[in-house]
User: Fold this.
Amino acid sequence: VMLPPEQVPKAHRHLERPVYELRRALYVHSDSGGFWERRCEDHILQCGFREIPEWQSCYWHPTFRAFSVVFVDDFKMAGPKGGVAQCWEALRHAKGNHPGIKMDDPAPAARYLGCEHRSYYEPSPITGKQVHCMEWDMGSFMEQRV
Assistant:
């Protein structure tokens, strides 16, 4: 990368248009999300998750029966309560050459990929037992696009 003149170190100001190695993705770089996803994926796999080949950025943890989807810095996870908690904990801790992922505590699903998420329980039409349902409302997303 080329730095703005005011950011060039004093020792290099005699050089004409010095170039520096970019060691971290810039937030506004067109592929910064891709760089982060690759780094993140390495750690997710080290934590025992397996890729789901047909679904990019989706992972399955066979031991804890947890499904996770990652979009840049937004993580979603579903599965048995205890297993999900253990998976969140594993993602936060170092594995191999990865320092772990700094993240907020998990929160109920609210907004993801422009959709509002609503969670509720209702009787299953098959068994009659209460089941957890998730509804995605794309109304606000569509309004923003019009």
